[in-house]
Design brief:
Shape: globular
Largest sheet: 6 strands, mixed
Strand content: 25-35%
Radius of gyration: 23 Å
Structural class: alpha/beta
Low-confidence stretches: 15-26
Distance between the termini: 69 Å
Number of strands: 12
Number of helices: 10
Amino acid sequence: MTNSFKASQHIHRLAALIVGLAACAGAWAMDVRVVGQEAIAPKWVALPGRVTGICPDVMAAIERIEPRLHFMGYDRSRSLPGIEAGLESGKLDAACALIASPRRNAIAVPVGKPVYVARHLLVARAGDTAVVRDMQDLVRLGALVTTQRGSVFTDWLKAGGVQVDDATDDNGVNLHKMLAGHGRFAYLNEVTLQHYIHSEGLGPRVRVLPVVLGAAPSYFWVSRKADPDLARLLGAALEKLKADGELDRIYTRWTGLH
């Protein structure tokens, strides 16, 4: 057997090994089906031809440190009830940055460290001198509050006896309803409220009340019908991103908050 023939066999074996390793890597790759959430910038920001925001940046960071995960489908957006229906049916594998609720706990599991903590604030028209220290004050005022349909915090307001208009899950519409005189207050998460105030120049027209009526961690959720490996891989990736500060950097980059 000539040296050239032996060398050729060795090259072929190496090539076969590389192909086999690539096939194994490919077999471990997992497409993770998600969708964006409607009207909740900067968590999700729809731009011409692309979607960006806190959640897309978090998913890109996850893919960098855990290449076995590939997120797909978030060029489409759904309402909160639509996202929950997708998790329940198994048509969606995961959802980004949602707080816990009995329904979500029944259809999915939270994994890893929270993406961020959601704080909900009241905003009124400029010049409104209302004092609200807690939900009981809000109930005593008897004021109508515009808020997001399907939100856990909206359910909390309703259960507490607050008059609520949750006809839409569009936070921008709810804010402008209040500014137009429909409702005394709007109830939004801090991140989205600040986004609308700055992007639409609403500072002179609104008064943000100095009270946090609700706060809760927002987690990545994995459908109970998803591949069992997904929760493990996604949770570990989020733990790493929190440990090295990347989750906090993404949040601050989009919100200016810490």
